[in-house]
Amino acid sequence: MMPPEFSKSPTMEMFETEKDVVQTPSVSKNTRNGQKSWKNLWYYFGEQDLKWFNIFLLFTIHGYVLYVLLVVHKFIGSLLIFHFFYTQFSGFGITGGAHRYYTHKAFKAKIPLRIIMMLGFTSTGQNSIFHWVRDHRVHHKFSDTDADPHNAARGFFFSHCGWLLMKKHPDVIEQGKKVDMTDVLEDPVVQFHEKYFVPLWLIFCHIIPIVTPWYFLNVDLLDCFNYQMVRWVFTVNVTWSVNSAAHLWGNRPYDKSIYPAENRLVSLLGFGEGWHNYHHTFPWDYKAAELSWWLNTTGIYLNFFRAVGWAYDLKTPSKELIERIVRKTGDGSHFRWGQEVLEEEEERVLLKEE
Question: Which GO cellular component terms are attached (predicted)?
């Protein structure tokens, strides 16, 4: 079954020209000197100093979570249900809030929605909104070059989490200083978040998801802690997979010249963030994908908030613009306008004629 046609809504801003498509700088797949090899760790880490505290912390936490999953292996249904819904809160905070709203300004949001997104993002236990948005804007402007904080051209491990284990490349620091963050810092919700970041981080990332089920669901405190650590590791790894897996594996129906690809698994786990070839072609689209409903949880949530009036002026390209870009720069794998689709239709016609 073909997906539904796009319709113009008064609450959406439609973009019609190819000028609205981001022009990504040409990228060489060999941005680092040396030969890729698991033995040649110098290639993956480069000359930057390693952050030994981050290395110790991340490996310790991941080791503990593996112990919880493989050895403790304790199933508690009420905790699973609680963390499923809390993960929805966290996931929407980072995908709808830090990413689509604050980084790309893909829509406008009223104060209640901005507060929800800010608190949800804080519950993911990552950097502050300012640092996250700054790095992500640099990532889009210099995608998969040395100025990209998580340059996928340096391999899966570096783009997944290795970039957090070492000091930033000088190009990342230089370009990060040039990013205009005025719009973010002028937001009163962000100002509150930055001022009280540490207590908010502790409360929403750790205290609430541990104490709430302990107090209200009468679950052992250690079990609550274990489930919280599993949730945190799951959340950050899904976030990292957008930078790694969705830049390395998948088809490229919108722009075959760039690393970002359409990755269904990342889209499923990452609230719709895995439709990455589309997103890097149209980064200002609130859906971060061509469809707002197919493996796109955040797109569904944003449509809901648009219906209640908390999200408005949602940006999206016209169907005609998408088609022009697909036919001009895509790899032929688009579900509607790709060369592979045309070849299948020709085969069906030939079979009917026979």
Answer: endoplasmic reticulum membrane
Pairing of strands 108-109, 311-312: antiparallel
pLDDT digits (tens, 9 = 90+) for 197-215: 999 999 999 999 999 999 9
The per-residue pLDDT of the chain, averaged, comes to 87
DSSP annotation of 101: I
CA distance 166 to 145: 17
Q: Which tokens is 75 given?
A: 């199933």
Query: What mean pLDDT is predicted for residues 341-348?
Result: 52
Asked if residue 19 has pLDDT above 90, the reply is no
Q: How many beta carbons lie within 10 A of that of residue 82, not counting itself?
A: 20
Q: How far apart are CA 115 and CA 88, in angstroms?
A: 15
CB 96 within 8 A of CB 240: no
Q: Tens digits of per-residue pLDDT, 89-148?
A: 999 999 999 999 999 999 999 999 999 999 999 999 999 999 999 999 999 999 999 999
Domain boundaries, the chain: 12-320
Using DSSP bridges, classify how beta strands 108-109 and 314-317 pair: parallel, antiparallel or unpaired.
Answer: unpaired
Helices 129-141 + 188-195 axis angle, to 10:
120
Alpha-carbon distance 150 to 261, whole Å?
15
pLDDT over threshold 60, residue 1: no
What pTM value is reported for the model? 0.85
Looking at residue 316, the DSSP 8-state letter turns out to be E
Full DSSP string of 35-73: ---SS-HHHHHTTSPB-HHHHHHHHHHHHHHHHIIIII-
What is residue 163's DSSP assignment? Answer: G
* Phi-psi label, residue 88: left if phi above 0, alpha if psi -120 to 50, beta otherwise: alpha
